[in-house]
Amino acid sequence: MLTEKKILELEQKANDIRISVIEMLLEAGSGHSAGSLGMADIFTILFFHILKHDPKNPFWEGRDRLILSNGHIAPVYYATMAHAGYFPIEELKTLRKFGTRLQGHPHREYMPWLETSSGPLGSGLSQAVGMALADRMDCGADTHRFIYCLMSDGELDEGNSWEAAMLAGKHKLRNLIAVVDRNNIQIEGFTEDIMPLEPLSDKWRAFNWHVIETVGHDFKSLNEAFEEAQAIFEKPTVIIAHTVPGQGVDFMEHDFKWHGIPPGIRDMTGEPSKEEQGKLALRELRTLGGKIKSEHQ
Amino acid sequence: MNFELWEEKLKANTNKIFNFIMLNPKLKLNPKIFSLGCEQVPTRKGFGEGLLKAGELDKNVVALCADLTESTMMNLFADKFPDRFVQVGVAEQNLVTVASGLSAMGKIPFCSSYAMFSPGRNWEQIRTTIAYNGRKVVIVGSHSGISVGADGGTHQALEDVALMRVLPNTDVISPCDAIEAKKATLALAKTPKPAYLRLFREKTPVVTTEETSFEPGKAQIFWLPDVGLAQVGIIVSGGLMHLALLAAKELEAEGIKTKVMNLATIKPIDTDAILELAKECKAMVTIEEHQVAGGMGSAVAEVLVESFPVPIEFIGVRDKFGQSGTPDELIEKYGLGKDSIKKAVKKVLKRKV
């Protein structure tokens, strides 16, 4: 059940996380903007409403597992975990710097409570499948844990993704819930130009998955999607979340140029100057797109 | 086998079978090693039996295969523990990444395929999701080496040791026979690190016995001179051990004293044992069914050039792919046979300073 009050809280939290993401990227001088901003709402609802987890006891056996397959959106992963209380928000400034726990792509040697290390694309879903299989071996059909796998649409180009999808379908892994960030971009362009994925829902259905399509920025719809996914008993579920890359920062939205770079490093035609990019992004987020007059921190 | 009995047998045979006593008596190796009736068993069978046993000992041991369950002998485990076996189909990238996920939940996964496909095809997945990720998974590569035979070059993994030993945080073991393969499998079920176990398709002579000790990371001297120092140290990994021992026996008859070392664990490498052998012999020959580039011989050379450089001759495949043929034909063709070994020993002797 998601009350109006809770929705407001989540919206505020997601906005704080986006602000952290921009601050981290500005400080680091490299990193992936578009997917990090686009997935902020999904990370927020997972860590602040859906997941069974305990930031103070990160190795709790009964926790749900969350695999981030496309490790390049690490900024939003780290920002969400810091805001959830896994480590100090201050530490976010160390992203990508020498000696940091916040490696450019997640590495669990430095932060052991990350469920996996990722970066090379297409192998997160199969790790989630392995976790779901282990959970079934231990708990049978009576499991109360869910294994979530967050993945990008671009990484569905990888054959490994579909090998995993096939195995999950074979084993009817009801404890497995995948979320595809359907933002339609990848590093060199639009997914449908680089390597068409459509009809994407049909593909997953053909692999014996239950498919839910939803908007990736609406907490009510997202909550319904996760509740439905948890209730589906006979199949694994994939939530195809239609997101806007760069969501929350007007000049970044829908633009694949922002896939792999941070604000503040490059002047580009049709974009604010590099000196302005960070300021504009933060102002927009801090005023909730101009809805409130004074910037809040 | 009873050790005292073995000793008695040794003494009784001392005069009759001259070469018999050159085998290291402490290791209780197979006394029939040089007779025609020496039993031959593929290392993959030893793995299959070891995995079954490991599964009986620890309920967390699980197994995965990419449609080669019988030919990697994983069927012994799969038949006994169907609920702990995952058939992933012909999908080696999935094989190891699913194993990584199982490991994350406390399982001890063994995943088997042919070495050419795993770690051949899925190396980056092994690197990132297992080695880099610190997940304890055992990659079992069967059908390695040139002795795969008739299937031809596509199926003869001559690069797998190089691929796996270059990965940080990963152990590499290449057993010399089926009995050692069984022991290695049981040992790997208990070690906390990711590991690669290299196996062969062909039957190879059983060199060790159940009584022979095995400890991962420890090299063993299988053959040694009855008196005096050895002139050449021969280091072997894998199924060519028998040929190395035959060569050593013939060289002994020709008056050349050698020591033959079984280096089953290629990583972590037994630096102390290798240096000790090098200091005694001051000339080495390495033997493996692998490319010379990057294999066990390279690993031995890395140890020696840093601390105690001595001349080395490498027995291995020299920058060539394999082809169809019988194992014996191919071993001859690629210069891995007994005569090549003897030639290498004589060559390195001449290079000694």
Automatic annotation (TrEMBL), chain A:
Signal peptide: none annotated. Residues 12-265 form the Transketolase N-terminal domain. Its cofactor is thiamine diphosphate. Keywords: Thiamine pyrophosphate. InterPro entries: THDP-binding, Transketolase_N. SUPFAM superfamilies: Thiamin diphosphate-binding fold (THDP-binding) (SSF52518). Belongs to the transketolase family. This is Transketolase. It comes from Candidatus Nomurabacteria bacterium RIFCSPHIGHO2_02_FULL_41_18.
